[in-house]
Design a protein that fits this description.
- GO terms for molecular function: dGTPase activity.
- InterPro entries: dGTPase-like, HD/PDEase_dom, HD_assoc_2, HD_domain.
- This is Phosphohydrolase.
- Residues 50-158 form the HD domain.
- This protein is an alpha+beta fold.
- The chain contains 18 helices and nine strands.
- The strands form three sheets. The protein has a four-stranded mixed sheet with strand order 3-4-7-8.
- A hairpin with a 3-residue loop joins strand 1 (4-6) and strand 2 (10-12).
- Helix 9 (152-165) crosses helix 11.
Length: 396
């Protein structure tokens, strides 16, 4: 197979076993699964797919794994290529629904690896589906390359998402970073000389969250989509176990023929006729304990809708998790051969860790005509503090 031209990494050489896996329906489905879900409603260029990202992750893994044995190198390259085959339509926007109904996270892909089209290829090359699954889950030594504290998965998606959204925060010197990744006592560690590149990666991720991953329009679209999916499942229009087998376009068409509410929501999304923010507040205005009510959001939505006198389903409550900063567990190998956690050697990393909570936002979304009424009720319900008007500057 000729090398594949990628806009991020240039020419990507394809091994025979990778070529065979690329030609399976399981991998080809990812051509029609957008990497950033409904984020293209904010950034029109964000139409890149899980297929491209999987290729990029494979490419980076192949660079890191050069010193491994032949068998380990094959396994980690395959794991990198297949690490996202468990994503449903619109990627992370369908992830919570899939997990709720199937108890599978998108990394739980063993059931897909054991399907004939994939298992036949793995058997041909003497590769165990269980081994690939464990690598993807990050449960093995070499699996840390794909799923670890600083892995090739996030390297590729940060660079790729930045490129396609036009947001310049994701420009990271990944080649220098990869050169300073080494195994030490069965763990991947970072050589001290790669610290600045690691800081650049972590800062890029921090800046991409409010600008791209948690942009309020993307959050609103995602909430509408998830609620429409949930109603479709409740109405027996949709079998949730099929979500990891279909793509964006298939689901989009199917939803147009579902119940009245789900079809209305997909029509609104397709035409960018979205709900609006009634409230959108951070921890400066609500107590941090509010995150524990995330699982009760359906009951809260129904109550706010009842108080506002509008139909249930037209109030959406979005209480995200507080972002985790797992990267603080990255170990740095110092010049004196001592191992230290990255937040013990980098002031910048400590600042990033402390700053994640400042970008957290809770949203309540509704139709434009109900915005003011819902805002008042939601503020009372969540005990949202009022923002004091800024005092005018006095001129001497």
């Amino acid at each position: 197979m000729s090398p594949i031209r990628d806009p991020i990494h240039g020419y990507i050489e394809i091994s025979p076993y990778i070529e065979e896996l690329l030609d399976t329906r399981t991998m080809q489905r990812l051509r029609n699964v957008k990497q950033l879900g409904w984020t293209n409603l904010v950034y029109p260029g964000a139409n890149h797919t899980r297929f491209e990202h999987s290729l990029g992750t494979y490419y980076l893994a192949s660079k890191v794994s050069a010193e491994l044995s032949r068998e380990e190198r094959m396994e980690i390259e395959i794991a990198a290529l297949l690490h996202d085959i468990g994503h449903g339509p619109y990627s992370h926007d369908s992830e919570d629904i899939i997990e709720f109904y199937t108890r599978r996270k998108h990394m739980d892909v063993k059931f897909l690896l054991e399907k004939e089209e994939i298992s036949t290829i793995l058997d041909k090359y003497g590769i165990s589906a269980s081994a690939i699954s464990s690598h993807i889950m990050g449960k093995t030594k070499i699996g840390q390359i794909v799923n670890g504290t600083l892995d090739v998965d996030r390297m590729d998606y940060l660079i790729r998402d930045s490129y396609y959204t036009g947001v310049a925060y994701g420009m990271v010197d990944y080649s220098h970073l990869l050169r300073n990744f080494k195994f030490h006592d069965d763990n991947i560690v970072l050589f001290h000389r790669g610290l600045k590149s690691a800081e650049s990666l972590l800062m890029s991720r921090f800046l991409m969250y409010p600008s791209v991953y948690n942009h309020h329009v993307g959050r609103i679209a995602g909430a509408m989509f998830v609620n429409a999916l949930d109603v479709a499942i409740q109405e027996n229009d949709l079998d949730p176990t099929h979500l990891q087998l279909i793509d964006d376009y298939e689901l989009n068409v199917l939803m147009r023929g579902y119940n009245k509410y789900s079809s209305e929501m997909i029509d609104r999304l397709n035409n960018r006729n979205l709900f609006k923010r009634a409230i959108y507040v951070g921890f400066d205005l609500v107590d941090k304990s509010i995150v524990k009510y995330a699982k009760a959001h359906k009951e809260i939505e129904s109550e706010i809708a009842r108080l506002a006198g509008i139909d249930s389903g037209y109030v959406l409550v979005d209480i995200p998790k507080v972002p985790e900063f797992k990267e603080k567990n990255v170990k740095v190998l110092m010049e004196n051969e001592q191992l230290k956690y990255v937040d013990n050697v980098s002031e910048l990393v400590r600042i990033i860790e402390q700053s994640y909570a400042s970008d957290w936002r809770m949203g309540v979304y509704t139709l434009p005509e109900h915005r003011e009424k819902v805002a008042g009720i939601a503020r009372d319900y969540f005990n949202v503090e009022k923002v004091a008007k800024q005092a005018k500057l006095e001129v001497a």
